[in-house]
Amino acid sequence: MTSFFRGMTGRVFLVLMLGILASAALTQYLAVNERQRTLQRYRDYFALERAEQIISTASVVMPESRNQYLRVASMGAIKLEVLSQLTGVSPDLSEFGATLGNRLGKQYVLQSLVDRPEACEHPTTTYTPFSVFGAGTGTWRGTCESIAVTMPDGQHLKLSIMPPRQPAPTGKNEYAAFVPFLICIAVLAYLVARMTMVPLNKLAKAAKNLGHDINHAPIALGGTTEIRTASAAFNAMQARIRQHIAQRTEMLAAITHDLQTPLTRMRLRLEKVKDTELQGKLLEDLSAMQQMVKEGLDLARSMDATEAMQRVDLDALLDSVCADAADAGQQVELKGRAAMDMMGRPLDIRRCLVNLIDNAVKYGQRAHVTVERMAGASRVRIRDDGPGIPANQLAQVFEPFYRLETSRNRASGGTGLGLTIARNIAEQHGASLSLANHASGGLEAILVFPEFYAGK
Description:
10 helices, alpha+beta, about 15% strand, five-stranded mixed β-sheet, single chain
């Protein structure tokens, strides 16, 4: 769940979800308050009608029977009772009292009382079953007061307008009505987030595939105008990069290939040199030049990704490479099993492993090859018994023609292309190659190959 919200899809989903919920909560709050005001206005109108009816009827009832009528009629939130003494009269008549007095006529005298009914001060939740941020709770804001009514016959009555009583329980959980609403919001937010992020995920996947295979198929144009424009620009960029790499590879391959012929002629002519010592030195330099040309061709081939990928048994390939190295007189030790297949170009992977093993034997006299199985990948460690490399130069040795020794002596160092070739091949196969100084001494090259999954 944490990884989901760290991604753009989860964050868009969360923003949409919170935004919709905040809007829904605000709308509900405003709707509840408006409903309160409507109910208050309705209750005030009902109280006015009911009070006029009770008082008008009481005026035609005989004074000796009026108490009995008032006990029967005074039910609910409207109560009319006999007022023994007219005290505590307010100098100003309320708006409700003035409206009621206009309806009853001048034969009735109405006066507002200072003391309000006790129920007016008690909190009530009669307006709505949903209490959103306090809406629907608190004191009654409608008419709630006591009015003294002087009847035409001179009798004083007390009219009490109180808040409505609590509604009857519904037997249902009103908050359960929010569950379908929340589910709909969550589904909608997820669909919008997914619809927004799927094209971006396709672009990210295409960029990743481009790093592994420059000849990967272009992105299919589709979706909104912005996504189609971005996809078309990405495809154009891929085509330009492919063209630049092809031109550079062809140029390097052509130069190194064309050097082979004059170098061969020079070797033939050197055979005629009579000075044996001079001849030996010249042949040694010529061999170094031919090795540089060969590694230049290998570098050009390592940047060529036109060969089709195929399923490769990593264990079988490692066995073959280590066996060939042992047959050539190199001290190579292989431990562990990967027990997995990978997608790759067998010749390129072999060249990568051979370069790393050759480096280990050349600078450390021995190559310890260890294979480990990981989750969805395998790790190949190639360690030597040499002095290692300064920590500040572990990344620089991957640069073309970079050597720790500047003498260019073939006995002490190569051309500086071996690790560059190995890294190029690893990156084209979605693998990673890094160097580290081992705790027990020596330099360790670490290769991590991704596992092959059918249909991936």
